[in-house]
Every structure is written in C-alpha cells, then in structure tokens.
Amino acid sequence: MNPLEGELVYLRAAEREEREQVHGWLADPDVIRFNGVRYPSSLEGLRSRPLQAPGYQLAHFAVFERATGKPAGEVSLRTLGPENRCAELAVLLGPEARGRGLGTDTVRVACRFGFEMMNLHRIELRVSAANARARRTYEKAGFVVEGVRRESYYYAGRYDDEVTMGQLREEYDCRAQGRA
Prior knowledge:
The protein has helices at residues 19-25, 29-34, 43-48, 102-117, 132-140, 169-176, and strands at residues 9-13, 58-65, 71-79, 86-93, 122-128, 144-155, 158-168.
C-alpha cells in the first residue's frame, strides 16, 4: 500500500494554489478555537509563506478526500530532534471533512508514514481538553493519554487544559498487525 494513502484520504505535498482553501478554513470557529489561531491571516500572507518539500524535520502534507479528490485539510509531523526519533503531530481539517472518519484516517496515514517511512520511535501531540471530537479521533488511531497540562491553553478570556497524548512504534506495530 502507498504510505501516503488511507481508506478515505491521501496525502501529498502542499501546493500554493491550496492556500485559498486553507484561508477559508482559518475562518471556521472550531479551527480558530482548537488550532491556536490567534490573529486573522490574509490570503496574500498565506500565499507568500514559503512552501517546502516534506522532509525529516517537517513532513507537512495536504490532505485530500479519496472519493472526491477535494482538499480536506493539512497534517504535519515535526521532529523534535533526530536522536530521539520523536515527532509532534498537528492536524487541521476543514469543517466539511468532520464527522465522516476522514480525521481518523488522516491520523492513521500520518502515523504510518512517520513510523514506517521516517523511522520514528514516538509520535506525540497536544490537544485541548475541550476538543472531545479530536481526542476521540486520536484514541481511535492508537494514541494514549499521557498527561494533562493544566490551564495551559488560553482562548477567548479563559484557560483550558491541554491533554498530552502519544503513540510508540511498538503500539503502532501491534495495531498494524491486528494484535491490539
């Protein structure tokens, strides 16, 4: 199987022409709240950001729905140092991609790429404790809760907890082989 394809989504390097779609997603209230969007982005500002090919330090991909070929979001793995073989996962899905399993498939494909192609030992993430939908997605994809960073995320006049989650290569291997 292609390491960048799942059952519902496929990943590829992001292109400049997709910036308009990303700009629209950045206006969505849930994207703003749960992705740390503090300040509005201009379309021109997004277009002028340099695009780099995915690599070991930052494997950043555009996410597309397989059935329609339409953009669904973005996903990235940012390594935290080659010695540790650890990366932080970040996912942004547009509102039209929610509630249909695309998020879970995106996370599974990103993890498969990270473990099998980048030879990572660990993938971790932080998610707002208030984002129950994302937490369920990560748990379905094999992540486990490792801790809570109390009141570490500020949004709209209040502090929320952040949940730290992680997945080890061994746990991924067990799931991939149907032993979990």
